[in-house]
């Protein structure tokens, strides 16, 4: 076998080696870990952020809090949070602390979008619903929640992609995931492990982009057709949306 | 890169320890300096590249779509993956870290500057043209000043997220305070070191953000005069 000298050539060789897929700690294992951690983190984030965001939006209060939470997590270094939580849990470096740390990064987009989703509901529709005799809880469940679904979906997409991206760093606190492939590559050294480093990068980036595309499709599906074009300009101010990439 | 620690004198493993801060003040200061300088350099380079790019996207509308699309796609790529692409070519060192940081900051700034420029009302542009401003005159005298709030928002976002991102740089060379976080992790989870570094990161972000707000106030005096 000719040894490729440039990192991309090495990466191609590395990816095409079936052992690198099926070995213990190979690509398939890591992919499974990555997806499990990410899914748990996003689910935990949703459990916390959605009820809170919907409720705050329903009350019409807490906008400042939502912005504060979003901005604060932007400034907290990913690595610090990933390192601090395992210490807090003090139970070694299992999955739990990593999942909780990642969930923290999922909360801001979920919270902000849930809040905005409820706030943007047409006040006239709310008046009409109240006039029909709906109570506060019914209003939230039967009117505000359905109308906020496109926003919830947008938040879910942002959160999920961000968590998948951040989960790559979990490898540095021995949390596993696809980042582990890159880390192992760095461990071998760039001369020998360059191909593996690039290959790991391709896998991590590919997974993040795939999630972005797939969830983008889902978001589009749950957004009623008339809202689709207008939303891009007004609904979700992409430039300012507080999603630090990690 | 050795960050030797004198922490055994400190009993237990507290979250906050002045003992640690005092004993390692040189290391901590060096890390803070490196962190701030990496952030500053990355944001500065990013602004210098982002402004011309945004003006291109603003002047030639067909370019706006691709530029924004590419920046969106690159922004989705996880930082670790991005560093993994760069490191085999540039080695592990400051250059690799800077290139990665600049790329992310660039994307945030371009998006906001383009949005800011596009918010300049067309009537204003026409009025400027009527007054005899050329393309460049209009850009510097009308468009850019009116887009300043958008530009500042972009630079602030980019700065704060770069501060957080610098820590990841420890994996490919230099990470400023990230080095302390990582060293603390490897030193049997030395809490004081991790906590100190994390808090200093947030502090740097807050300070830089406030500085930018101040600068923004100074360069856009009209925005404070107008009732918000």
Descriptive overview:
Chain B: Keywords: Membrane, Transmembrane, Transmembrane helix, Transport. Chain B: It comes from Micromonospora luteifusca. Chain B: Pfam families: BPD_transp_1. Chain B: InterPro entries: ABC_transp_perm/SBD, MetI-like, MetI-like_sf. The complex is a heterodimer of chains A (246) and B (228). With 246 residues, chain A is mainly alpha-helical. Chain A has helices at residues 7-16, 18-22, 27-59, 63-75, 78-89, 95-119, 123-131, 136-167, 179-188, 190-222, 225-235. Chain A has one domain: MetI-like (MetI-like fold, Orthogonal Bundle). The model of chain B is unreliable at 6-10 (pLDDT under 50). With 228 residues, chain B is mainly α. Chain B contains ten helices and no strands.
Q: How does CATH name the architecture of chain A?
A: Orthogonal Bundle
Helix share, percent of chain B: over 70%
Q: In angstroms, what is the radius of gyration of chain B?
A: 21 Å
Report the sheet-strand fraction of chain A.
under 5%
Main location (chain B): membrane
Family (chain B): Belongs to the binding-protein-dependent transport system permease family.
Organism (chain B): Micromonospora luteifusca
Keywords (chain B): Membrane, Transmembrane, Transmembrane helix, Transport
Could you provide a short overview of the structure?
Chain A: The chain crosses the membrane at residues 35-56, 68-90, 97-116, 148-173, 185-211. The complex is a heterodimer of chains A (246) and B (228). By secondary structure, chain A is an all-alpha fold.
Note the main attributes of this structure.
heterodimer, A: 246 residues, mainly alpha, MetI-like fold, 78% helix, 0% strand, elongated, B: 228 residues, 10 helices
SSE blueprint and pairings:
The complex is a heterodimer of chains A (246) and B (228).
Chain A: H1 7-16, H2 18-22, H3 27-59, H4 63-75, H5 78-89, H6 95-119, H7 123-131, H8 136-167, H9 179-188, H10 190-222, H11 225-235
Chain B: H1 18-23, H2 25-59, H3 61-76, H4 79-90, H5 94-118, H6 122-130, H7 135-166, H8 177-186, H9 191-219, H10 221-225
Helix pairs in contact in B: 2-3, 2-5, 2-7, 2-8, 2-9, 3-5, 4-5, 5-7, 6-7, 7-9, 8-9
């Amino acid at each position: 076998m000719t040894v490729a000298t440039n990192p991309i050539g090495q990466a191609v060789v590395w990816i095409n080696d079936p052992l690198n897929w099926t070995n213990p700690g190979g690509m398939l294992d890591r992919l499974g870990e990555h997806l499990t951690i990410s899914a748990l983190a996003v689910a935990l984030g949703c459990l916390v952020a959605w009820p809170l965001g919907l409720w705050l939006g329903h009350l019409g209060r807490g906008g400042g809090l939502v912005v504060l939470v979003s901005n604060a997590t932007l400034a907290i270094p990913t690595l610090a949070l990933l390192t601090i939580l395992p210490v807090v849990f003090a139970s070694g470096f299992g999955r739990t602390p990593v999942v909780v740390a990642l969930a923290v990064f999922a909360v801001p987009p979920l919270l902000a979008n849930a809040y905005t989703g409820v706030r943007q509901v047409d006040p006239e529709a709310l008046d009409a619903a109240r006039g029909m005799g709906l109570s506060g809880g019914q209003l939230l469940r039967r009117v505000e929640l359905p109308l906020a679904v496109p926003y919830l979906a947008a938040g879910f997409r942002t959160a999920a992609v961000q968590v998948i991206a951040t989960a790559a760093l979990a490898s540095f606190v021995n949390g596993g995931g696809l980042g582990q492939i890159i880390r192992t590559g760095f461990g071998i050294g760039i001369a020998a492990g360059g191909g593996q480093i690039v290959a790991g990068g391709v896998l991590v980036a590919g997974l993040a982009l795939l999630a972005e595309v797939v969830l983008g499709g889902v978001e589009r599906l749950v957004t009623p057709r008339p809202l689709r074009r207008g939303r891009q300009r007004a609904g979700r101010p992409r430039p300012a949306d507080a999603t630090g990439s990690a | 890169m050795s960050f030797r620690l004198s922490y055994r004198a400190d009993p237990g493993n507290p979250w906050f320890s002045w003992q640690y801060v005092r004993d390692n003040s040189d290391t901590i200061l060096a890390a803070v300096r490196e962190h701030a300088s990496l952030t500053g350099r990355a944001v500065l380079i990013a602004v210098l590249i982002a402004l011309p790019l945004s003006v291109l996207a603003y002047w030639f509308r067909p370019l706006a779509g691709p530029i924004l699309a590419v920046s969106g796609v690159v922004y989705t790529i996880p930082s670790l993956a991005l560093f993994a692409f760069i490191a085999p070519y540039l080695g592990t060192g400051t250059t690799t870290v800077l290139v990665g940081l600049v790329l992310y900051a660039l994307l945030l700034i371009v998006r906001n500057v383009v949005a800011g420029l596009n918010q300049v009302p067309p009537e204003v542009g026409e009025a400027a043209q009527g007054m005899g401003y050329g393309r460049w005159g209009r850009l510097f005298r009308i468009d850019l000043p009116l887009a300043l709030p958008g530009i500042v928002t972009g630079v602030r976002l980019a700065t704060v997220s770069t501060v957080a991102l610098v820590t990841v740089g420890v994996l490919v060379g230099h990470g400023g305070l990230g080095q302390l976080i990582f060293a603390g992790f490897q030193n049997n989870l030395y809490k004081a070191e991790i906590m100190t570094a994390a808090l200093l990161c947030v502090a740097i972000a807050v300070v830089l953000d406030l500085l930018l707000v101040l600068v923004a106030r100074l360069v856009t005096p009209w925005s404070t005069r107008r009732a918000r």
